[in-house]
Write a structure and sequence with these properties.
116 residues, mainly alpha, 6 helices, globular
Length: 116
Amino acid sequence: MAAFGDHDARSIPQRGLRLAEEAIETAQACGCDPAMLHRLIDHVYAKPVGELAKELGGLGVTLLALAEAAGVSADEAERQEIDRVRAKPLSHFAARNAAKAAAGFHVSAVSGPDDV
């Protein structure tokens, strides 16, 4: 919370935006076509909104399936990322968060789990 502020740390839409960013970066690393990703966004948003808990479960299963297909230990990759993040000063992440907000990637509304 210290790096992002209470709003950004607790905002479900803001956390969702960051999750989408990581998913897109992962898709890019997998060699996915950006035009197909744009079409996929339209396809998903044309469907009814799902339940957050179920979607998170699907995300977790899909992440594990991708790691298995790629021959990557999801647990080890997560541990390495946590270590990398912890090695950086909070100011690094605060500056990155501010830059993303300045670029227009910030959700001003705060919502909690009951609002999703």
